[in-house]
# Entry
Amino acid sequence: MTSGARRLPAGFGRLWTAQTVSSLGDGVSHAALPLLALTLTRDPMALAVVTAAGTLPWLLFGVLGGALVDRWDRRRTMWVMDAARAVLLAIPAAAAALDVLSIGLLAAVAFLLGLGGLFFDTAATAYLPDLLGRDPALLERAN
# Structure
C-alpha cells in the first residue's frame, strides 16, 4: 500500500462478509434443492425444472430488479432478502417432515431464492459506491 492510499472503511469488511456468506448459501441451495428433488423422482425434466427455477429470476427480472433496488434502501434490501431466504429454506424441511414435499414446491422455493439472490446481489453491488464514496482508488481496491 502506498503512503497516499486510503484504507477501506470497516463497513466494507461487513459487506464483504455478508456477500461471502450469502454466496455460500446460494451455492449450497443450488446444489441441495436438485439433490432433494432426486429423492422424489428420477425424472431428468423434473430435476431440470428445479435447477432452472433458481436462475430464471435473473433472466426475467434482472433489469427490473436493478431499477427497483435503485429506489430502495440498499442495506435494508440486503437484510430483508437474506432473512426471507433463510425462512424460505425452512419450507422444504418442514414439507419433508410433513410428507408434503413436491417438485412444484422445490421449484417455487428455488425461484423465490433466486429472486432474493437477485435483489441481494444487486443491492450489495450498488451499495459499494455508497459505502466507499466515489473514490476510484477505493472502488478499484474493493472490487
Notes: Residues 103-132 form the longest helix (30 residues).
